[in-house]
Amino acid sequence: xxxxxxxxMQEKISQILxxxxxxxxxxxxxxxxxxxxxxxxxxxxxxxxxIRCSRENIRxxxxxxxxxFNDSVRKQSxxxxxxxxxxxxxxxxxxxxxxxxxxxxxxxxxxxNGKTWYLGRNGLSSVEPRYFFEYLYTNELDVLKVPEWARxxxxxxxxxxRFFNKDKGNDPPGxxxxxxxxxxxxxxxxxxxxxxxxxxxISSLNVDVIYLTPIFKSPSNHKYDTEDYFxxxxxxxxxxxxxxxxxxxxxxxxxVILDGVFNHxxxxxxxxxDVIQNGEKSKYRxxxxxESFPVRTDPPNYECVGYYKWxxxxxxxxxxxxxxxxxxxxxxxxxxxxxxxxLDVADxxxxxFWQEFxxxxxSVKKDALLIAETWKNGSxxxxxxxxxxxxxxxxxxxxxxxxxxxxxxxxxxxxxxxxMLHLYTADSxxxxxNLLGSHDTPRFLSLCNGNLNRMKLAIAFQMTFPxxxxxxxxxxxxxxxxxxPDCRRAFDWENINQDLLAFYRKMTAxxxxxxxxxxxxxxxxxxxxxxxxFARSINGDNTYIILNNSAEExxxxxxxxxxxxxxxxxxxxxxxxxxMPEEISDGETFxxxxxxxxxSKIKMILPAYHFEIIKKGG
Length: 618
Description:
Oligo-1,6-glucosidase, domain 2; globular; 8-stranded parallel sheet; 14 helices; TIM Barrel; Immunoglobulin-like; alpha+beta; 4 domains
């Protein structure tokens, strides 16, 4: 064959393959794998299923499933659309069995625009698949169990040195005046007795959990460079003070969690000092990542957290290190009756250690809460074998950009929120640590340029959103501050913004009194220029939240799930105002009208930077 003829033949074959490929191309994308991100047990007889499809053209999704040992009995279940973002539409459902969920084969039927597709193990097809997904078995420890008390709880974070100085006798040398500007080195004298003396203030915020940043012996004001993991820093008090704090909190139905800095130690941690002194002969040389001997600090020849030489990274492949920190974790539960741990930079620690740590902690206190610090999608840590919750900085980023800085519009905010919601399982969502700020970020009010109306909108959203809303100490008082260390100012007890404090109290009380706000599912129902609305729903009980995040008054029409009855009306949970429902006109559409069944609508006028919370009343 002539060379040119060979090239022509290859081109013809390529064209044929291309045409055949086009004929078999699927106009949609659907993603599901038989892994814990998409199928997981609620208990031993119930499974939760999730699937996501390309946003356009999809209207319904059905799962077909059966026991592989009884192929003749196949069942179908329609999955529920739980929301969508700018790329994906999400479906989920729950399957119940009369025995332990096991040996389940399944595939999906996806429909839209008059067309039907099938999703099996080997991908999409236009006919029923030949190979199927399979779920094999549910063991007891496969079930994700989060502490029931933590669902929807309200947290309060305290930086102890800056909260309140009650005991002047334990002040470290060189304490500065309470109104001084914070630096990375100065001390203000706050202590555990100071926290105890202000528990009435914390209780007034309807707080369920107090989280203390590190309190163990350390040379710094922040205590993230631990020297002794088995003693309270003398500038904060002692074990008796901690025990009293926990007792006083428990008497108020408040739990206490401590900050576990286990990824790294402080420079003056005795094992690290032993390595410095004894070099290769130190029995602790393999507790750290030492590159050469002798140890030096400028530049450090050992691995550190964030390249910070005063915080050498610990090696958790070493059994002795694992044993030591498991002992630390259980010690404070046994000795002080704390209720769990917030785990510093947890996503930098060997995940197999967290599996071991969880088993040890839960064996001592079954309902202890474990929260991991991470600034990314933390779903890989929430599979039931590591932690219960993560710090939800994805939530904070979206809230900052929408409410504080106005960097994004309502539709982009809706996309970010919906995508974030669908990263996590339904159980995990209700214990996510949803923060507006922390000791590592600028104060939220500062990001709002002091605009209290913007901050109130963000608080309203936070307190009505699924998860555990977290208050950073002083935010309720109107404190401001740029990034670390300025965000760690001493609590200004003499200049509390009483209006903002009252607002916080009102919103936290409302959250605790309304079942949907604490436990309900989330459904986006309104998204327009500068305005946003959603519903929280549980067992047919709906609460609606509508926010005007603009500088203009807005006349809004909001869809509702309740039918109109002779005496039906909607009542504001903020001021008791009544709204009368109306029929939805033919052809009238709302956000997500094609996936939710709206039965009525209400009209309202919202002033600039205001919000409303309503539900069906008498």
